[in-house]
Amino acid sequence: MDGRHDLEIILRSRTPIVVIETRDEGRILKMLQSITISGAADNYLPLFRWTVTDGLQRIDIALEPQTINSEPSDVLRHIRAVAKPGIYVLLDFHPFLDDPVNVRLIKDICIRYREIPRQLVLISHDVKLPAELETFSARFEMTLPAEDERRKIVERVADEWTRDNPGARVQADARAYKMLIQNLAGLTYRDTEQLARNAIFVDGAITRSDLPGVMQAKYELLNRGGALQYEYETAKFSDVGGLARLKKWLSQRRAAFRGDESAAHLDAPKGILLLGIQGCGKSLAAKATAGIFGVPLLRLDFGSIYDKYHGETERKLRESLQTADVMAPCVLWIDEIEKGIAGRGGETGTTQRVLGTFLTWMAEKKSPVFVVATANDISSLPPELVRKGRFDEIFFVDLPDMPVRAAILAIHLTRREQSPSNFDIDELADAMEGFSGAEIEQAVVAAFYAAHAQQQELATSHILQEVRETRPLSVVMQEQVAAMRAWAAGRTVPGD
Fold it and tell me: Which of 84, 130, 297, 427 could share a disulfide with 290, CB 3.0–4.6 Å?
């Protein structure tokens, strides 16, 4: 259940190097001790642990550390010289794998393994073996707590709180308790226990109010230094003017995405691609999607995953997508996707691999991660991405028509504590023909400044003046907008 059997098989397979990437080294060490102690007498191997701070120490029996072997090269020379078999656990050894002396010493130990089986177990959060050592190695992936194990951890933490508070019991809402168990998926034992403790020990209760904090903390644990951003605030579709067809489409699929029993026979939706003119609400629609689904919103910045070192870009992308899988159910928002997968000069090889990695993940993912990708430059999108089947649907977000402009204007006035009834909304909406949602908002903001400078209350005249002085994007880039509309006609579904 916990991977102990798999680890034992690897240890007994006569592999000179075992690589374990984990932050839960304490659990691995306990597992190794359990394996060695319970082994048959004829297969028993002594177990040693090394750290750069304490040196080498035998840990299957209680012995003092050998501080003379604290230096990496010294401990490797010692292991190479030992004439007896053993398992040597090297903790956080990854910084020393760049030293050619250490690489050669490890290789010597591996080459002589059949004569004297001295096994190296490298444990760290990230281990990159030199190419010449890969052939001698096997990797063990630590299994994460299953649902039953997570439930036991939460129950154990609840028992701890009860012991600390005699006469009291942890109060738990049944649905919140179930969701907490689900939301703790994808974490190590240690992190699962810590987040459960954070949720319970604050007030001695498990309620739905605990869940956002758990998801935020979970994200921070998973995405250390990654390209994902956790969007703390989502939006409501009432904050989005227009996009009636998109709103209806998402509302119809909400139950299927959330896994409601009423929609158990329906396929879960996998994602949408939003194409359209800048400032027309694509990003706001992505935020509102997370709001209507009631799940966290993660934003993937394609620009930050690119790395000058070969293979690092794809690795960062895979790690980001894995984090999204673990955070599920969630919405993954990829803003301006064309910047990450369109041609980038001399990096066409890298971008093709990035595109391939992303498309493979889209095709194979089983987790409830709903992808919302937005794009402004249609011409740069590769055909592999926009063909039918990659996304559930491709929506085109056009400039708002008159009723939608009026609705957007009312939203921005209301948001700034202005009653729309005090303004000539129809006149303003008519004057704003060709304006995007963002440009409508900026006209309201600029009008506020003008009214303040004149020491007047905001009025229709102030907004009209700002509109007359603005040249919207649809005018400045008329040809590009027309080309975008021509491309989208018949290829996409209108958002409105």
Answer: 297
Q: What is d(CA 363, CA 479) in angstroms, rounded to the nearest whole number? A: 36
Full-model pTM: 0.69
Chain centroid, CA 181 distance in Å: 19
Q: What is the DSSP letter of 267?
A: P
Q: Give the integer Cα–Cα distance in Å for 285 and 242.
A: 10
Helix (H, G, I), strand (E, B) or coil at 417: coil
**Mind listing the pLDDT tens digit for each residue in 269-291?**
889 999 888 888 888 888 888 88
For the beta carbon of residue 143, count every other beta carbon within 10 angstroms: 14
Report how far residue 429's alpha carbon sits from residue 419's, in angstroms, rounded to the nearest whole number: 16
Contact 440, 409 (CB under 8 A): yes
Sign of the torsion angle spanned by Cα atoms 424, 425, 430, 432? positive
pLDDT tens digits for range 138-191: 998 877 788 888 899 999 999 999 999 888 888 888 888 888 888 888 788 888
Tell me how far apart the alpha carbons of residues 453 and 227 are, in angstroms, rounded to a whole number. 42
Pairwise CA distance, residues 41 & 37, whole Å: 9
Q: Which residues are CB-contacts of 64 (< 8 A; sequence separation ≥ 6)?
A: 57
* 470 class by beta-carbon count within 10 Å (0-12 exposed, 13-18 middle, 19+ buried): middle
Amino acid identity for residue 220 in this structure: E
Give the DSSP letter string of 187-203. --HHHHHHHHHHHHHTT
Helix and strand element counts for the chain (H, E) = 22, 15
- Tell me which residue has tokens 């190097």: 17
> What's the rounded Cα separation, in Å, for the pair 354 and 340?
8
- In this structure, are residues 403 and 283 in contact, taking their beta carbons and an 8 Å threshold? no
How are beta strands 118-124 and 86-91 bridged, if at all?
A: parallel
